[in-house]
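Revision sheet: structure tokens.
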Amino acid sequence: MQLSQIVSKMNISYAEDGLRFILHQSDSRLVKGWTMQKTNLRLASTQTLNRFALQREHETISKRNRTSQIGPLESGLISETYSMGKEKRVGRERAVSRGKSRSGLTVWFTGLSGAGKTTICRYVQMELATRDIEVEVLDGDVIRKHLCKDLGFSEADRKENIRRIAHVAKLLTHHGKIVLVAAISPYRSSREEARSIVGNFIEVYVNAPLAVCEQRDPKGLYHKARIGMIHGFTGIDDPYEAPESADVECLTGVESPKESCDKVMAAVLQFLNRQSK
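Predicted:
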């Protein structure tokens, strides 16, 4: 074999050995590089988590100390909002105080059936409404159909009927309302009990002669009582005890509804004027 051939084979051998060495070194570097990358990823992940945790902790602390770290603009807005809220609260408190300082009143219309209690009551209601005064009406017939439908017309039931109406009037009166009650309320003792229950109380005697009431007879009840279709009817076979000293007396046999209304309004306004002082 010639020398040149031997040298060529040696070069090839050296070249193969060199290539294997290079590949081995490359593999080692690749493995080492991959290992380093994994380590760096773990480190980067840990650092990211730590930064996130620190950021959340910083945000929590910032929220807790927000009032001490706010800027001038934010401070002004918060101060303005607080002031507005305070004004509204004070306004509500003043409104409540005014409501508490003004007591209500019950105006109790008593009289025979057909005397004109409901008519005058409605006139007074409209007059009060024009003055922006809150008013509630308790009509005896309506109360009978709902709140007192379990009651009859015996003396005990009539007294219980008046007592229930008085308690409803009391609740409304204590909330500053003007309450107009239109009910026959035939017994003097029941009306006095109603006065004691309510407190602020004006008794209005709607006085009309029995003959006038029978002539009006808007519901036909007097006729039925006269022919015996109904029993225990006030003024016919059950007594009506007229007030001895009513606060207001309306002579509806000779007065117009407007004249009677003016009498009642004078008493109501006098009461309200006393309350406002």
